[in-house]
Amino acid sequence: DLGCILAAGGSVVGVGSDIGGSIRMPAFFNGIFGHKPTPGVVSNQGQFPNAVGTRTEFLVTGPMCRFAADLLPMLKVMAGPSTVQLKLDEKVDLKALNFYSIEDDGGSWLCTAVDPELKQAQKMVVTHVEKELEVKVQEVKMEKLKYSFQIWTAMMSESADNQTFCELMSHNESNPVNPYKEFVKWVFGKSDHTLPAIGLGMTEKVTQLTTEQNKNFITMCANLRTEFEHMLGEKGVLFYPSHPKPAPKHNAPLLTPFNFAYTGIFNVLGFPVTQVPLGLGSEGVPLGLQVVALPYNDHMTLAVAMELERAFGGWVNPGRVEEPGD
Fold first, then answer.
1. pLDDT by 10s per residue, the chain, length 326
2. Three-state secondary structure string covering the chain
């Protein structure tokens, strides 16, 4: 896992792709920084499978690293001529920004409740901004976030031009994988596919049967985007959990397959997001949060990430030896 390699100091920087959180979740679990750029700025060319149809608006490629200062030069290199769109050379006055905080998705029955330590870490960030930057952080709620997974799924299946996940699993569009058969095979250890992949295929099949409901969630996504645009404006940033729980034990995510909705919702909204580590919790695993802004305001989320690294320490060296008295 790239996140593990980076956190352990095995590489200076890394490149990830993200259509539902595949930059931000490993970065969060391993206590490093990861940035999901504004869509369409960094090329996705060369990936397999690459996104097609409307999914090209949701898939992004971005940097991962231990230190916040490395995100900016990496993103400049990756964006190439498109760098100018992100205003990366523009100095950010943090005291001139408007800060907002949402502590959870409002109680989706599909997702785990946000861990108290993560809520506390986010409150510490809010306190820091209000005390050190002297800027009031507005605590807000958005009811539609409760449907993040349903919105993400509906948006992923919106276009008829999209290649289905079951087709990608089979590498043969004329003979897509049957996820229900694969699940039975998986139970007996005979499937070539992982359980998360099979589960996603099964979810895809269900959404194909609920086209009218999908349309409602697609409309909800547009309305949610409008709500965020009105709230954030060109000077707003949002704090939001990177995941409901700190890094889980191996295979535990199989029991909570929908928790990725905390990151996935921002893919379908098209917003830039920086995952910021906030030290370690009581179990010795990383804490963190997402810093979100409107499209092409990547420079703002990166600037906030650098401030939070300065205040809370950022990445924690996993090889540090405790000295007497520490």
1. 789 999 999 999 999 999 999 999 999 999 999 999 999 999 988 877 666 667 778 999 999 999 999 999 999 999 999 889 999 999 999 999 999 999 999 999 999 999 999 999 999 999 999 999 999 999 999 999 999 999 998 998 775 456 677 877 776 667 888 988 988 998 888 998 877 678 777 777 777 767 788 899 999 999 999 999 999 999 999 999 999 999 999 888 878 889 999 999 999 999 999 999 999 999 999 999 999 999 999 999 999 999 999 999 999 998 865 655 66
2. CHHHHHHCCCCCEEEEEECCCCCHHHHHHHCCEEEECCCCCCCCCCCCCCCCHHHHHCCEEEEEECCHHHHHHHHHHHHHHHHHHHCCCCCCCHHHCEEEECCCCCCCCCCCCCCHHHHHHHHHHHHHHHHHCCCCEEECCCHHHHHHHHHHHHHHCCCCCCCCHHHHHHCCCCCCCCHHHHHHHHHCCCCCCCHHHHHHHHHHHHHHCCHHHHHHHHHHHHHHHHHHHHHHHHHEEEEECCCCCCCCCCCHHHHCCCCCHHHHHHHHHCCCEEEEEEEECCCCCEEEEEEECCCCCHHHHHHHHHHHHHHHCCCCCCCCCCCCCC
